[in-house]
Amino acid sequence: MKTTQEQKWLDTLTIELRLRDVSGPGIGDTLATVKEFLADSGESAQEAFGSPAEYAASLDLSTSTEPISVKRTVFRSVIGLLAFLMFSQAVAPWVAREPLDLGGAQLAWLAFPAAAAAFIRLYLDKLVRHLWMAFALIVVCGTTGVLSALSAPKAHADAWFSINPGLVLVVTGAIMVSASTLSTISFAKDGDDSIQEPFSNPAQERKQKATSSILGILVSWMLPIASLVFLGVGFQMR
Question: Are residues 108 and 218 in the same domain?
Answer without folding.
Answer: yes
